[in-house]
Amino acid sequence: MFIGHWAPALAAAAASPRAPKIGMLFIAAQLVDWAFFGLLLSGVEHMRFSPGISVMNPMDLYHMPITHSLLGSAAFAAAFAALLWLGSKDRVLALIGGAVVLSHWFLDLLVHVPDLTLAGSPPKLGLGLWNHPAIEMPLELAITFGALWWYAKVRRPARLRLGVLAALLLALQAFNWFGPVESEVTAGTSLLAFVAFGLVTLAAWWMGKSEAANR
User: Fold this and answer.
1) Above 50 in pLDDT, residue 14?
2) Helix (H) / strand (E) containing 104
């Protein structure tokens, strides 16, 4: 799951006028992976490239007990919700933000081969849709662009800005699916992820500025 992680952010923005701003929701949706690639860079969590470990994804995510355990994801969600509450004193806003953070683990559960945990140790979990591209690919596109359509219908951002975000999401997902595979994990692995997450979040924030102006 890549761009599909932003579907809950878009859906939350469409569903509730008390949701955090869309840029903040995009941070929430990928907060777990921001943390993972940071911990990968610092050597706390680990992965390697093992082509064939699944049909669609060559990443062997063999050690990520903090970010990709359900307990760890819940802790990130609670911390994010607490920060939102401190900044807004709006409990509903904070709970929505926390729920978007936690959605990351459950979406990963659908696609990952067994590498997720409940609390950092086995059993390892994952339903393995990465081994079924005929299911995973249309599913990811459907939830992402379905949520984007719902957001656009409710919040009515500027069409140009909406189109820029949609094009960026599609381009990054295509690169994720069809781009070259790295031979080993380097600092560039994390930096590339940060650039991708940052570009999408910036585009969502820019889109959200026009939505705020139109309401």
Assistant:
1) yes
2) helix 91-111
The DSSP secondary-structure symbol of 68 reads: S
Neighbouring C-alpha atoms within 13 Å toward the C-beta of 82: 6
Render pLDDT for 33-80 as a digit per residue (tens, 0 to 9): 999 999 999 999 999 999 999 999 999 999 999 999 999 999 999 999
pTM over 0.90: yes
Tokens of 203: 């585009």
- Closest Cα partner for 63 from 103, 116, 112? 116
Q: Residue 168, CB half-sphere, CA atoms under 13 Å: how many?
A: 20
Query: What are the angstrom distances between the C-alpha of 175 and each of 40, 114, 171?
Result: 21, 24, 6
Residue recorded with tokens 């393995």: 128
